Amino acid sequence: MKSILKLKTIDDIEKELSIIIECEKKQKSDITLSQIFDFLAESIELSIQGIGYITKRTTVNKLLGKYKFAKLISKGHYTKTNQIPGFPPKDLGDPESAQLRLKTSLTAFKLHSGPFAEHPVFGGLDKKQWEKIHGILASFLFGYIQLFGDEKLRFVKDRENKKERNYSDKKQNQNHHQNKKEAHGETKPSGHNSRKWKNKKKSHYKGNKNQGGGPK
């Protein structure tokens, strides 16, 4: 099953999860929400908590793992369930707890700076690489959920995100111009020094005027 979703970051996963939570939904297959949320949460948890658990890997397996990782990143998606070890997990039958677990794991990943665990197939990965894997996995798993009324919600959220980006860019440009002015000495001194600067400028002007033949 190829998902049309393209989730690349943890933020993308969080945004898509918020849409799933708010929308009316139903299962596309016998995979439940609880299984989807729990499996994705467990994957994220293991990437930051599975430190010290190292699978014995031969040189061939290491090279094969790197090849498989590069191939998956190049494709950008899983195509079959059997490409994902351990999926589907046992259904615990508690989607609300699974949802909370997933939210918590996403926050924990964002706050975690390292080190990171080895992937059972791909081997050692850094944070950015793990984030890509989580995004691809989430894209695949969320494809099992059929949503209703999500188009309008996506439009509203995209518009809000666009406003936030525009505001952030505008603020950044203002700071950049301000720093540029300060670097070139174009800003006037403030406070007491400002008055001295004005007085110096004024007396200098009078001197020039007298030297030019004006009345003394």
From TrEMBL:
Pfam families: DUF1569. Transmembrane segments: none annotated. Residues 193-207 have a biased composition (Basic residues). Residues 162-216 are annotated as: Disordered. Residues 162-172, 180-189 have a biased composition (Basic and acidic residues). It comes from the Bacteria. Coiled coil: none annotated. This is DUF1569 domain-containing protein. It comes from Leptospira biflexa serovar Patoc (strain Patoc 1 / ATCC 23582 / Paris).
